[in-house]
Model the fold of this input.
Amino acid sequence: MEANGASSKKDFKNKIFICKKEAQETKHWLRMLKSFSLEQLEIIEKLWKEAQELTLIFQKITSSLKIND
Done:
């Protein structure tokens, strides 16, 4: 929602880039949790896959914006 309310194309691109960074950080913390919480392994792996999908989506958006600049 934050990116949709961007004030310019540059602002939109910046907010999407931040989303990508946040998804990557989420993957990092999920990897950390995985080594400490074996009983929750299945849910952690599922969440990691979702974060990976979001990372790829945000990457595609940012690369598409570079092409259209």
